[in-house]
Amino acid sequence: MRGPLVVKRAFSEPLLLLAAFGSILLATTTLVALTMYASSIADAGVRRTMETASLRQTSATISAPVTAKTFPVYDQAVRAELTKAYTKAPTLTTSFHSDSYAMPGQEDRDRPELLRFGSYDGLDQHAKLVSGAWPKAADGQVEAAVSLSAASAAGFKVGQELTTVGRLSPEPVKVRITGVFQLDDPFGERWTGEQLLSRGVERGDFTTYGPLMVARETFIGRFATNVNATWTAEPDLRALTPAQLRPLAAAVGEVGPHLKAAGCASCVTTSRLPEMLTQLDTASLVARSTMLIPVLQLLLLAAYALMLTARLLADHRRMEVALLRSRGAGTMRLAALAGGEALLVAIPCAVVAPFLGPPLLGLVNRIPWIRASGVRLDPTVGLGTFLVSGAVALASAVLLVLPALAGARRTYVEEQSARGRGGGRGLIERAGADVALLAVAGLAIWQLQHYGAPVTATAGGGLGIDPLIISGPALALLTGGMLGLRLVPRISAVAERVTSRRPTLAPALGAWQVSRRPLKYAGPALLLTMAIAIGIVSMATSSTWRGSQLDQARHQAGADLRLSGPPDAPELGPFGRGTAFAALPGVTAASPVFRGQTEVSSENAVLIGIDAAKLGTLFQLRPDLSDRPVAEMSRALAGPQAGKLDLPGRPAALTLRATADADLPLRLVLSDALGVWRDVSLGVLKAGENTIDVDLAAMAGRSGKITYPLSLRGLVGSAPSEGSASLTVTGISADGQPVTVPAMSLKATGRQPAMAAFGSPPVQGPLPVVLTADLATALKLGVGQVGRASIDRRVMDVKVVAVVETMPTTTAGQHAVLADWGTMQAQDLAAAQLPRPATEWWLATGDGRAAQALTGRPAWDVTALDQRALATKLQDDPLASGLQGALMLGFFAALVFAALGFLVNAAVAARERMNEFAILRALGVSSRQVFGMLAMEQTFVIGLSLAAGTGLAVVVGMLVVPHIVLTGQASAVTPGVVLDIPWGATAAMLAGVAAVLLAIVAGLARNLRRQGLGLREEQ
């Protein structure tokens, strides 16, 4: 009897039953999808990070001095420990470096040129033979292969036989060159610790060639005399899961101590992997915890929508329940009926929702930034999915039952009396619960702002999700909406007074109805307000996140394309680099830049020198980071420039003639048309007449070209520690043609350098600079002030032309100084200091062609940082972008909840008032006026909800959004996050929601017209 009664009773209210079913199905499906999404995105983020991680990040290196006797013991221990740490044996490469040997024929020199021997496992897999064959292990003569760059520099050829003697061992070694090879990627990360192998020659106090690569067995037998051996482990971590991150980090971190305990006391272990895995684990935890924020918002919205439906259902059945009680039905019987009815709706949703989750995530895969990242979510339905679905469905059933049980003890007479009573204040408002929730929400948001993420330290010293923090945004939305309900009676009363003074009846009736029964409209208004706020906050978070990724890329790059590398390189010399870079396709502006660490009045800082005239084109500073625009900085930074003497034509050689009265080391400072300054050693001038030849063409490099004209800037010399030295320039010629030179001389005393300028001497004055805010505070200088500061231990006057919160290319909290390139060089020259080299080149590019062109030129030895590629990489990070998909799911679900709840409430409210409408018609009110009254009531609810939801979203967005936008490593963003509410999209969303809701009202009015007229005729 109970089963059929439950079914019959449930289907007696098909509209409410369908609304409850839709709400529960939407809640279970969306929350199951969000649970699947959070798990899938964490797995995808870890997998993507491991797939794209560089060799330097994932590898582990172990180095130790070995001999032929100790190497096998160490090798076995290293392999065993690495296999134990990684659970799966990594690819292990062993490399060796020998002591120095003298170049053949130079054994008796005091400073001979040197060569080294080496061995590298699997070298043939990372290099190709140009000629000859790979060396083999053989007794007697040593077989060796040499790189193409080393062969070119030292003159080695295939088949050549040579004999060399070690610097530490007199025993000669006979070597035969069997092959010449070329590394596949000589400037790749694999060869970071193999500079001699990648370059072929190193020049310093000694010139060293090589290494001559021999077979492993040959090296151990002939050269392993307490030399360095390096083991490099390359693990395959593509299948790593979030649960394995910290255990693997701990295991790799213990390799070094375990090796020392095993007897390898001299083993030095180096790996960035533990730090990377720990950081990735934290980022994964933060990503999952952040995605709980939209989950909780949606849970709250779903619970409230379901409670509204349950309240309507209970209101409809109160008289029925009272009659059942009068006929002897007890509380347990009524609870069983209500529970059975709720389970009848909830159980199908619990079963169906897990199978609807994956198709819903398939739609998430179509979101542009998820699709662009290459992440493909492929979740599977498992036990956990059904547990989540069942828990949500059961909770929904309980919410459906509670309102029915709340009025189950009332008698029929009590119900009749209660139907006529109403009030302007709800129970929650009367109890002050909304104010109490406001305090809790405020505490949660304060903690979010304080900790910067929904993750805090646990009692055990680890990291865990803080439930108060992640609930803060949801509580703020709920509290804000509840506080907004306090406005409904007041605004409706104002609307009643305004409309009552007008002659039209419908608005007055509608406003009077809302003011008479505000609590009837408070429920739908709160639902709409929360849904609109969730939608706008979701859109704002997505827009803010995308804008933040672009801001981070611009800040890290500093310019469209930033190129770094050694100022002097064989392929492109100091005067050849700028010419080559400026000629790259798509380049519209270029500037040499000095960027390096310096000391500013005992504070470590980054010094950036760039052409101020091109600052507006190159420098990517977000406008809010400084009170002064970049264009004004550009004009204010340019200070006095140094004079120069332009060389006529396109000279490849320069000859300088000078007379000195004592030995004087001398350097020539010159520059090219691109503004690159460089000093050239002229050697030590002797007393008397000196003639020095300078090879200008060599300063372009093998494949570089000079941008003419070349200009002479000055001469810098320093005398011995005691005494003085004077110099007078007697003549200069370029390519044999004399150059008119003004009379110039210098006198150096002691070790103090002296300078002679070509052209007008540089003007000494305050150096205009831009400082970061914290450095300006440390120096106690403000904008427009002049003060003394020590830069590179040289005290000078500086003038602060602007202060920025953070300087592009620097990290959070890092001090920085920005100065004009030419002014800075002039100041250095005036102080007889050598010019700063161009450590970087900043380029403005219209597209990505310049960066693409650089990929085919590894010999240029350039590291490129492309702002566009960096922005794409940041936006494609699954862990950083994971929140966006969750927000979109929550956004669409919130709108559907709002539309569904509004439809049900409006339909039920209109149906309940059929008799009221009939009485109004009998009193002479036209059907148009009746429907106008209905439209006025619902429009009031819609308008108030849209306005309150927008205001609430702005407040919550300002308090919350900047603190949940983090980097892919779960760290604070630099520069700081700026809230971006896309007002165009927001207005379109609000208009669309209003159109849908008004269409619902119009449909209800049309339906009531058909039903109401028939009813009135019968009456």
UniProtKB/TrEMBL annotation:
- What's the protein's topology in the membrane? Multi-pass membrane protein
Subcellular location as annotated: Cell membrane
**Every ABC3 transporter permease C-terminal domain range:** 296-411, 891-1005
Residues crossing the lipid bilayer are 291-313, 334-356, 386-406, 427-448, 468-488, 525-545, 886-909, 930-961, 981-1005
At the top level, the lineage of the source is Bacteria
Keywords, in A-Z order: Cell membrane, Membrane, Transmembrane, Transmembrane helix
InterPro entries xrefs: ABC3_permease_C, Macrolide_Exporter_MacB
Q: Where is it mainly found?
A: membrane
Regarding protein family, the annotation reads: Belongs to the ABC-4 integral membrane protein family.
Tell me which PANTHER family the record gives: ABC TRANSPORTER PERMEASE YTRF, MEMBRANE COMPONENT OF TRANSPORTER-RELATED
Report what the protein is called.
FtsX-like permease family protein
Q: Which organism is it from?
A: Nonomuraea spiralis
